[in-house]
From TrEMBL:
It comes from Triticum aestivum. Keywords: Aspartyl protease, Hydrolase, Protease, Repeat, Signal. Transmembrane segments: none annotated. Residues 57-405 form the Peptidase A1 domain. One of its GO terms (biological process) is proteolysis. Residues 1-25 form the signal peptide. The active site is at D75, D278. PANTHER family: ASPARTYL PROTEASES, EUKARYOTIC ASPARTYL PROTEASE FAMILY PROTEIN. This is Aspartic proteinase Asp1. One of its GO terms (molecular function) is aspartic-type endopeptidase activity.
Protein backbone atom coordinates (compact mmCIF):
# COMPACT_ATOMS: atom_id res chain seq x y z
CA UNK A 1 0.00 0.00 0.00
CA UNK A 2 1.12 3.54 -0.68
CA UNK A 3 0.00 6.48 1.39
CA UNK A 4 -0.29 8.09 -2.06
CA UNK A 5 0.20 11.66 -1.20
CA UNK A 6 3.49 10.80 -2.91
CA UNK A 7 4.06 8.63 -6.03
CA UNK A 8 2.67 5.08 -5.82
CA UNK A 9 4.24 2.16 -4.02
CA UNK A 10 2.96 -0.97 -2.44
CA UNK A 11 4.76 -2.31 0.58
CA UNK A 12 3.63 -1.75 4.16
CA UNK A 13 5.88 -2.23 7.14
CA UNK A 14 4.53 -2.12 10.69
CA UNK A 15 7.09 -0.91 13.17
CA UNK A 16 6.67 -1.41 16.88
CA UNK A 17 6.65 1.43 19.36
CA UNK A 18 6.28 1.47 23.11
CA UNK A 19 5.00 4.91 23.95
CA UNK A 20 3.63 6.22 26.84
CA UNK A 21 0.63 8.21 27.84
CA UNK A 22 -1.79 6.59 30.30
CA UNK A 23 -5.23 6.01 28.89
CA UNK A 24 -8.43 4.03 29.15
CA UNK A 25 -10.74 2.75 26.50
CA UNK A 26 -14.08 1.01 26.44
CA UNK A 27 -14.08 -2.11 24.30
CA UNK A 28 -17.14 -2.37 22.06
CA UNK A 29 -19.47 -5.18 22.98
CA UNK A 30 -19.07 -8.17 20.71
CA UNK A 31 -22.21 -9.30 18.93
CA UNK A 32 -22.93 -12.58 17.18
CA UNK A 33 -20.55 -13.51 14.40
CA UNK A 34 -21.67 -13.00 10.82
CA UNK A 35 -21.27 -16.74 10.27
CA UNK A 36 -24.03 -17.31 12.81
CA UNK A 37 -26.33 -14.62 11.41
CA UNK A 38 -28.16 -15.53 8.21
CA UNK A 39 -29.33 -11.91 8.02
CA UNK A 40 -25.79 -10.49 7.92
CA UNK A 41 -26.07 -7.85 5.25
CA UNK A 42 -23.72 -6.08 2.89
CA UNK A 43 -22.65 -2.46 2.66
CA UNK A 44 -21.93 -0.67 -0.61
CA UNK A 45 -19.91 2.53 -0.83
CA UNK A 46 -19.38 4.82 -3.79
CA UNK A 47 -15.76 5.35 -4.79
CA UNK A 48 -14.12 8.51 -6.08
CA UNK A 49 -10.86 9.21 -7.86
CA UNK A 50 -8.98 7.50 -10.71
CA UNK A 51 -5.60 6.12 -11.71
CA UNK A 52 -4.61 9.20 -13.69
CA UNK A 53 -4.23 12.01 -12.86
CA UNK A 54 -5.40 11.58 -9.24
CA UNK A 55 -3.50 8.36 -8.57
CA UNK A 56 -5.94 6.84 -6.07
CA UNK A 57 -9.47 5.67 -5.36
CA UNK A 58 -11.11 6.78 -2.12
CA UNK A 59 -14.32 6.43 -0.15
CA UNK A 60 -16.26 8.78 2.13
CA UNK A 61 -16.82 7.42 5.65
CA UNK A 62 -18.88 8.98 8.47
CA UNK A 63 -16.99 8.69 11.76
CA UNK A 64 -17.63 9.93 15.30
CA UNK A 65 -20.63 11.09 17.31
CA UNK A 66 -21.98 13.25 15.83
CA UNK A 67 -20.77 11.63 12.59
CA UNK A 68 -18.48 13.69 10.39
CA UNK A 69 -17.30 12.85 6.85
CA UNK A 70 -13.74 11.79 6.03
CA UNK A 71 -12.11 10.66 2.77
CA UNK A 72 -10.10 7.43 3.06
CA UNK A 73 -7.70 5.89 0.53
CA UNK A 74 -8.98 2.36 -0.17
CA UNK A 75 -6.12 -0.05 0.56
CA UNK A 76 -6.35 -3.84 0.47
CA UNK A 77 -2.57 -3.96 1.00
CA UNK A 78 -2.62 -2.90 4.68
CA UNK A 79 -4.69 -3.62 7.76
CA UNK A 80 -4.82 -0.42 9.81
CA UNK A 81 -7.36 2.30 9.07
CA UNK A 82 -6.15 5.71 10.23
CA UNK A 83 -7.05 9.39 10.11
CA UNK A 84 -4.82 12.40 10.49
CA UNK A 85 -5.94 13.83 13.80
CA UNK A 86 -5.54 16.63 16.29
CA UNK A 87 -4.20 14.83 19.35
CA UNK A 88 -2.63 17.52 19.11
CA UNK A 89 -0.95 17.16 15.73
CA UNK A 90 2.85 17.26 15.56
CA UNK A 91 2.96 17.03 11.76
CA UNK A 92 -0.14 16.84 9.58
CA UNK A 93 -0.84 17.65 5.95
CA UNK A 94 -3.64 19.88 4.82
CA UNK A 95 -6.61 17.57 4.38
CA UNK A 96 -10.12 17.92 2.91
CA UNK A 97 -11.89 17.98 6.29
CA UNK A 98 -11.15 19.30 9.79
CA UNK A 99 -8.76 17.00 11.65
CA UNK A 100 -10.37 14.22 13.68
CA UNK A 101 -10.19 15.12 17.38
CA UNK A 102 -10.08 12.18 19.84
CA UNK A 103 -11.23 12.16 23.43
CA UNK A 104 -9.41 10.37 26.22
CA UNK A 105 -12.16 7.82 26.79
CA UNK A 106 -11.82 6.68 23.15
CA UNK A 107 -8.19 5.56 23.50
CA UNK A 108 -7.50 1.82 23.15
CA UNK A 109 -5.26 0.47 25.94
CA UNK A 110 -2.02 -1.34 25.23
CA UNK A 111 -3.38 -4.55 26.82
CA UNK A 112 -6.35 -4.70 24.40
CA UNK A 113 -6.33 -7.72 22.08
CA UNK A 114 -6.62 -5.46 19.02
CA UNK A 115 -3.43 -3.68 20.07
CA UNK A 116 -1.69 -7.03 20.42
CA UNK A 117 -2.93 -8.04 16.98
CA UNK A 118 -1.77 -4.77 15.46
CA UNK A 119 1.78 -5.25 16.74
CA UNK A 120 1.91 -9.01 16.45
CA UNK A 121 2.26 -9.08 12.69
CA UNK A 122 6.00 -8.47 12.76
CA UNK A 123 7.03 -9.29 16.32
CA UNK A 124 5.82 -11.20 19.35
CA UNK A 125 7.58 -8.75 21.67
CA UNK A 126 4.60 -6.50 22.31
CA UNK A 127 4.84 -5.39 25.95
CA UNK A 128 2.77 -3.09 28.09
CA UNK A 129 4.33 -1.34 31.06
CA UNK A 130 0.93 -0.48 32.52
CA UNK A 131 -2.68 -1.65 32.01
CA UNK A 132 -3.56 2.00 31.37
CA UNK A 133 -0.88 2.58 28.76
CA UNK A 134 -2.28 3.58 25.38
CA UNK A 135 -1.81 1.56 22.19
CA UNK A 136 0.69 3.36 19.98
CA UNK A 137 1.58 2.53 16.41
CA UNK A 138 3.82 3.56 13.56
CA UNK A 139 3.27 2.59 9.92
CA UNK A 140 5.72 3.17 7.09
CA UNK A 141 5.08 2.81 3.39
CA UNK A 142 7.35 2.10 0.45
CA UNK A 143 6.70 5.58 -0.98
CA UNK A 144 8.41 6.94 2.16
CA UNK A 145 5.11 8.04 3.68
CA UNK A 146 4.41 7.22 7.32
CA UNK A 147 1.96 7.75 10.16
CA UNK A 148 2.65 7.68 13.88
CA UNK A 149 -0.25 7.76 16.31
CA UNK A 150 -2.48 6.04 18.82
CA UNK A 151 -5.28 3.50 18.43
CA UNK A 152 -8.78 4.78 19.26
CA UNK A 153 -12.38 3.50 19.21
CA UNK A 154 -15.21 5.51 17.67
CA UNK A 155 -18.47 4.91 15.86
CA UNK A 156 -18.81 4.48 12.08
CA UNK A 157 -22.23 5.25 10.58
CA UNK A 158 -22.87 2.73 7.79
CA UNK A 159 -26.00 2.22 5.71
CA UNK A 160 -26.48 -1.44 4.81
CA UNK A 161 -28.01 -2.96 1.68
CA UNK A 162 -31.10 -3.91 3.72
CA UNK A 163 -31.65 -0.14 4.31
CA UNK A 164 -30.79 -0.26 8.01
CA UNK A 165 -28.08 1.98 9.49
CA UNK A 166 -25.55 0.58 11.95
CA UNK A 167 -23.09 2.53 14.09
CA UNK A 168 -20.50 0.05 15.41
CA UNK A 169 -17.61 1.28 17.52
CA UNK A 170 -14.46 0.32 15.62
CA UNK A 171 -10.76 0.66 16.33
CA UNK A 172 -8.61 2.79 14.03
CA UNK A 173 -5.48 4.90 14.12
CA UNK A 174 -5.40 8.54 15.17
CA UNK A 175 -2.29 9.77 13.36
CA UNK A 176 -0.67 12.85 14.89
CA UNK A 177 2.72 12.72 13.16
CA UNK A 178 2.74 12.11 9.41
CA UNK A 179 5.18 12.15 6.54
CA UNK A 180 2.83 12.19 3.56
CA UNK A 181 4.36 14.32 0.83
CA UNK A 182 3.90 18.04 0.43
CA UNK A 183 2.80 19.94 3.52
CA UNK A 184 1.67 22.93 1.44
CA UNK A 185 -0.77 21.18 -0.90
CA UNK A 186 -4.13 19.85 0.24
CA UNK A 187 -4.00 16.03 0.37
CA UNK A 188 -6.83 14.27 -1.49
CA UNK A 189 -7.75 12.16 1.55
CA UNK A 190 -7.89 12.39 5.34
CA UNK A 191 -6.33 8.98 5.87
CA UNK A 192 -6.30 5.32 4.84
CA UNK A 193 -8.97 2.59 4.86
CA UNK A 194 -7.10 -0.64 5.66
CA UNK A 195 -8.88 -3.70 4.21
CA UNK A 196 -6.25 -6.41 4.67
CA UNK A 197 -6.96 -9.75 6.32
CA UNK A 198 -5.60 -8.90 9.79
CA UNK A 199 -7.92 -8.66 12.79
CA UNK A 200 -7.34 -4.89 13.12
CA UNK A 201 -8.77 -4.39 9.62
CA UNK A 202 -12.16 -2.67 9.46
CA UNK A 203 -13.43 -5.64 7.45
CA UNK A 204 -12.48 -8.06 10.24
CA UNK A 205 -14.10 -5.81 12.83
CA UNK A 206 -17.34 -5.71 10.83
CA UNK A 207 -17.28 -9.50 10.91
CA UNK A 208 -16.66 -9.52 14.69
CA UNK A 209 -19.70 -7.31 15.19
CA UNK A 210 -21.91 -9.60 13.11
CA UNK A 211 -22.63 -6.86 10.56
CA UNK A 212 -21.20 -8.39 7.39
CA UNK A 213 -19.26 -11.48 6.49
CA UNK A 214 -15.50 -11.26 6.07
CA UNK A 215 -15.71 -10.51 2.38
CA UNK A 216 -14.70 -7.31 0.61
CA UNK A 217 -14.73 -6.37 -3.04
CA UNK A 218 -14.06 -3.37 -5.22
CA UNK A 219 -14.87 -2.30 -8.74
CA UNK A 220 -12.66 0.54 -10.01
CA UNK A 221 -14.03 2.31 -13.05
CA UNK A 222 -11.75 3.37 -15.87
CA UNK A 223 -13.95 6.45 -16.14
CA UNK A 224 -13.23 7.33 -12.52
CA UNK A 225 -15.08 6.32 -9.39
CA UNK A 226 -16.62 2.90 -8.86
CA UNK A 227 -17.80 1.09 -5.77
CA UNK A 228 -16.59 -0.85 -2.73
CA UNK A 229 -18.59 -3.43 -0.80
CA UNK A 230 -18.42 -5.42 2.45
CA UNK A 231 -20.22 -8.77 2.73
CA UNK A 232 -21.06 -11.48 0.21
CA UNK A 233 -24.63 -10.63 -0.77
CA UNK A 234 -23.49 -9.03 -4.03
CA UNK A 235 -20.89 -11.60 -5.09
CA UNK A 236 -21.52 -13.37 -8.45
CA UNK A 237 -20.04 -16.66 -7.22
CA UNK A 238 -21.07 -18.75 -10.22
CA UNK A 239 -19.56 -16.50 -12.88
CA UNK A 240 -16.36 -15.12 -11.40
CA UNK A 241 -12.93 -16.71 -11.82
CA UNK A 242 -11.75 -18.02 -8.44
CA UNK A 243 -8.39 -19.07 -7.00
CA UNK A 244 -7.50 -20.11 -3.46
CA UNK A 245 -5.78 -17.43 -1.40
CA UNK A 246 -2.09 -18.19 -1.25
CA UNK A 247 0.06 -17.59 1.79
CA UNK A 248 2.21 -14.68 0.70
CA UNK A 249 5.76 -14.23 1.89
CA UNK A 250 4.88 -10.53 2.03
CA UNK A 251 2.68 -10.48 5.15
CA UNK A 252 -1.04 -9.81 4.95
CA UNK A 253 -1.27 -9.09 1.26
CA UNK A 254 -4.02 -10.82 -0.68
CA UNK A 255 -2.25 -13.23 -3.01
CA UNK A 256 -3.71 -15.49 -5.72
CA UNK A 257 -0.35 -17.29 -5.81
CA UNK A 258 2.16 -17.66 -8.62
CA UNK A 259 1.38 -16.93 -12.25
CA UNK A 260 2.96 -17.42 -15.64
CA UNK A 261 3.07 -14.34 -17.86
CA UNK A 262 1.87 -14.30 -21.48
CA UNK A 263 1.95 -11.50 -24.06
CA UNK A 264 -0.12 -11.74 -27.21
CA UNK A 265 -0.86 -15.39 -26.46
CA UNK A 266 2.80 -16.39 -26.14
CA UNK A 267 4.74 -17.12 -22.96
CA UNK A 268 7.38 -14.55 -22.07
CA UNK A 269 9.52 -17.37 -20.72
CA UNK A 270 10.00 -15.98 -17.22
CA UNK A 271 9.79 -18.06 -14.07
CA UNK A 272 6.39 -18.02 -12.29
CA UNK A 273 5.77 -14.72 -10.53
CA UNK A 274 4.43 -14.42 -6.98
CA UNK A 275 1.54 -11.98 -7.34
CA UNK A 276 -0.34 -9.88 -4.79
CA UNK A 277 -3.36 -7.63 -5.35
CA UNK A 278 -3.13 -4.17 -3.83
CA UNK A 279 -5.71 -1.42 -4.29
CA UNK A 280 -3.31 0.87 -2.42
CA UNK A 281 -0.98 0.91 -5.42
CA UNK A 282 -1.95 3.10 -8.36
CA UNK A 283 0.17 1.20 -10.87
CA UNK A 284 1.25 -2.41 -11.37
CA UNK A 285 4.79 -3.46 -10.45
CA UNK A 286 6.73 -6.40 -11.88
CA UNK A 287 10.07 -7.58 -10.56
CA UNK A 288 13.13 -7.07 -12.78
CA UNK A 289 12.98 -10.22 -14.94
CA UNK A 290 9.29 -10.11 -16.02
CA UNK A 291 9.45 -6.34 -16.37
CA UNK A 292 12.39 -6.48 -18.78
CA UNK A 293 10.82 -9.35 -20.70
CA UNK A 294 7.59 -7.37 -21.07
CA UNK A 295 9.35 -4.19 -22.21
CA UNK A 296 11.36 -6.15 -24.78
CA UNK A 297 8.20 -7.81 -26.11
CA UNK A 298 6.31 -4.52 -26.26
CA UNK A 299 9.06 -2.68 -28.12
CA UNK A 300 9.53 -5.53 -30.55
CA UNK A 301 5.84 -5.64 -31.40
CA UNK A 302 4.97 -1.96 -31.87
CA UNK A 303 4.25 -0.42 -35.25
CA UNK A 304 6.57 2.22 -36.60
CA UNK A 305 3.86 4.85 -36.20
CA UNK A 306 4.66 4.96 -32.46
CA UNK A 307 7.83 6.69 -31.30
CA UNK A 308 9.33 6.47 -27.83
CA UNK A 309 9.16 9.83 -26.09
CA UNK A 310 10.12 11.35 -22.74
CA UNK A 311 7.13 12.16 -20.51
CA UNK A 312 7.35 13.22 -16.83
CA UNK A 313 4.33 11.08 -15.96
CA UNK A 314 5.92 7.60 -16.30
CA UNK A 315 9.26 6.06 -17.37
CA UNK A 316 8.22 4.52 -20.72
CA UNK A 317 5.95 6.43 -23.11
CA UNK A 318 5.15 6.65 -26.82
CA UNK A 319 3.71 9.33 -29.07
CA UNK A 320 1.71 8.90 -32.26
CA UNK A 321 1.31 11.01 -35.36
CA UNK A 322 -1.03 13.18 -33.32
CA UNK A 323 -1.75 13.34 -29.57
CA UNK A 324 -3.93 10.57 -28.17
CA UNK A 325 -7.14 11.57 -26.43
CA UNK A 326 -7.72 8.26 -24.64
CA UNK A 327 -6.43 4.71 -24.41
CA UNK A 328 -9.08 3.74 -26.96
CA UNK A 329 -7.10 5.70 -29.58
CA UNK A 330 -4.00 3.56 -29.10
CA UNK A 331 -5.07 0.17 -27.69
CA UNK A 332 -5.17 -1.45 -31.15
CA UNK A 333 -1.38 -0.96 -31.36
CA UNK A 334 -0.80 -3.15 -28.28
CA UNK A 335 -1.57 -6.74 -27.33
CA UNK A 336 -3.08 -8.18 -24.18
CA UNK A 337 -1.18 -9.69 -21.30
CA UNK A 338 -2.42 -12.69 -19.35
CA UNK A 339 -1.54 -13.91 -15.87
CA UNK A 340 -2.13 -17.67 -15.77
CA UNK A 341 -2.44 -18.67 -12.11
CA UNK A 342 -1.26 -22.12 -11.10
CA UNK A 343 -3.55 -22.04 -8.06
CA UNK A 344 -6.79 -22.33 -9.99
CA UNK A 345 -8.14 -24.37 -12.88
CA UNK A 346 -7.96 -22.17 -15.97
CA UNK A 347 -7.62 -19.16 -13.67
CA UNK A 348 -6.63 -16.46 -16.10
CA UNK A 349 -6.51 -12.72 -15.54
CA UNK A 350 -6.53 -10.89 -18.84
CA UNK A 351 -4.76 -7.54 -18.89
CA UNK A 352 -5.84 -5.78 -22.10
CA UNK A 353 -3.95 -2.63 -23.18
CA UNK A 354 -6.40 -0.36 -21.38
CA UNK A 355 -5.42 -2.14 -18.14
CA UNK A 356 -1.73 -1.36 -18.48
CA UNK A 357 -1.60 1.94 -20.42
CA UNK A 358 -2.52 5.50 -19.55
CA UNK A 359 -2.76 8.52 -21.82
CA UNK A 360 -1.20 11.56 -20.20
CA UNK A 361 -2.15 15.21 -20.44
CA UNK A 362 0.59 15.52 -23.08
CA UNK A 363 -1.25 13.07 -25.36
CA UNK A 364 1.29 10.26 -24.96
CA UNK A 365 0.60 6.60 -24.18
CA UNK A 366 2.62 5.39 -21.18
CA UNK A 367 3.21 1.97 -19.69
CA UNK A 368 1.53 1.71 -16.28
CA UNK A 369 3.55 -1.37 -15.32
CA UNK A 370 6.71 -0.35 -13.51
CA UNK A 371 9.94 -2.01 -12.39
CA UNK A 372 9.33 -2.79 -8.73
CA UNK A 373 12.97 -3.72 -8.20
CA UNK A 374 13.88 -0.06 -8.61
CA UNK A 375 11.88 0.89 -5.50
CA UNK A 376 12.94 -2.04 -3.35
CA UNK A 377 10.10 -4.48 -3.97
CA UNK A 378 12.56 -7.24 -4.97
CA UNK A 379 10.60 -10.32 -6.13
CA UNK A 380 7.18 -8.92 -5.23
CA UNK A 381 4.80 -8.43 -8.18
CA UNK A 382 1.92 -6.08 -7.39
CA UNK A 383 -1.27 -5.93 -9.42
CA UNK A 384 -2.40 -2.36 -8.78
CA UNK A 385 -5.39 -0.19 -9.61
CA UNK A 386 -4.62 0.27 -13.30
CA UNK A 387 -4.85 -3.48 -13.91
CA UNK A 388 -7.93 -4.00 -11.73
CA UNK A 389 -10.00 -1.32 -13.47
CA UNK A 390 -13.37 -2.44 -14.81
CA UNK A 391 -13.15 -5.73 -12.95
CA UNK A 392 -14.99 -6.67 -9.81
CA UNK A 393 -12.30 -8.10 -7.55
CA UNK A 394 -13.48 -10.08 -4.50
CA UNK A 395 -11.43 -11.04 -1.43
CA UNK A 396 -13.44 -13.79 0.29
CA UNK A 397 -11.83 -14.48 3.64
CA UNK A 398 -14.73 -16.76 4.59
CA UNK A 399 -13.90 -19.29 1.87
CA UNK A 400 -10.22 -18.40 1.53
CA UNK A 401 -10.45 -17.41 -2.13
CA UNK A 402 -9.99 -14.47 -4.48
CA UNK A 403 -12.20 -13.86 -7.49
CA UNK A 404 -12.54 -11.46 -10.41
CA UNK A 405 -14.95 -10.80 -13.24
CA UNK A 406 -15.24 -8.09 -15.90
CA UNK A 407 -17.84 -5.56 -14.79
CA UNK A 408 -19.31 -2.12 -15.55
CA UNK A 409 -17.82 -0.44 -12.50
CA UNK A 410 -19.49 2.91 -13.13
CA UNK A 411 -22.81 1.35 -12.10
CA UNK A 412 -23.46 1.33 -8.35
CA UNK A 413 -25.06 -2.08 -7.68
CA UNK A 414 -27.71 -3.38 -5.37
CA UNK A 415 -28.78 -6.91 -4.60
CA UNK A 416 -31.29 -6.90 -7.48
CA UNK A 417 -28.95 -5.63 -10.19
CA UNK A 418 -25.64 -7.24 -9.32
CA UNK A 419 -26.15 -10.14 -11.72
CA UNK A 420 -26.10 -7.66 -14.59
CA UNK A 421 -22.33 -7.81 -14.18
CA UNK A 422 -22.36 -11.23 -15.79
CA UNK A 423 -23.33 -9.86 -19.18
CA UNK A 424 -20.60 -9.46 -21.73
CA UNK A 425 -17.96 -11.41 -19.83
CA UNK A 426 -15.51 -13.21 -22.06
CA UNK A 427 -12.30 -15.18 -21.89
CA UNK A 428 -9.03 -13.67 -23.09
CA UNK A 429 -8.84 -13.60 -26.86
CA UNK A 430 -6.00 -16.04 -27.37
CA UNK A 431 -5.74 -19.30 -29.31
CA UNK A 432 -7.55 -22.04 -27.42
CA UNK A 433 -4.64 -24.39 -28.08
CA UNK A 434 -2.56 -22.37 -25.63
CA UNK A 435 -4.93 -22.18 -22.70
CA UNK A 436 -7.37 -24.97 -23.48
CA UNK A 437 -10.40 -22.69 -23.39
CA UNK A 438 -13.14 -21.68 -25.77
CA UNK A 439 -12.64 -18.20 -27.18
CA UNK A 440 -15.27 -15.62 -27.79
CA UNK A 441 -14.99 -12.54 -29.94
CA UNK A 442 -15.63 -9.62 -27.61
CA UNK A 443 -15.33 -6.27 -29.31
CA UNK A 444 -16.71 -4.67 -26.16
CA UNK A 445 -16.65 -6.29 -22.72
CA UNK A 446 -19.77 -4.45 -21.64
CA UNK A 447 -21.82 -1.41 -22.41
CA UNK A 448 -22.14 1.29 -19.80
CA UNK A 449 -25.34 3.12 -19.13
CA UNK A 450 -23.30 6.31 -19.53
CA UNK A 451 -22.70 5.59 -23.20
Amino acid sequence: MAARWAPPAGLLLLLLLAVLLPARADRPARTAHADDDPEASSAVFQLYGNVYPHGLYYVAMSIGNPAKPYFLDVDTGSDLTWLQCDAPCVSCSKVPHPLYRPTKNKLVPCVDQLCTSLHGGLSKNHKCDSPKQQCDYEVKYADQGSSLGVLVNDSFAVRLANASVVRPSLAFGCGYDQEVGSSTEVAPTDGVLGLGSGSISLLSQFKQHGITKNVVGHCLSMRGGGFLFFGDNLVPYSRATWVPMARSAFRNYYSPGSASLYFGGRSLGVRPMEVVLDSGSSFTYFSAQPYQALVTALKGDLSKTLKEVSDPSLPLCWKGKKPFKSVLDVKKEFKSLVLNFANGKKALMEIPPENYLIVTKYGNACLGILNGSEIGLKDLNIVGDITMQDQMVIYDNERGQIGWIRAPCDRIPNENTIHGFEEGYCWPQFPSSIFGIQNEECAVNYRSNKE
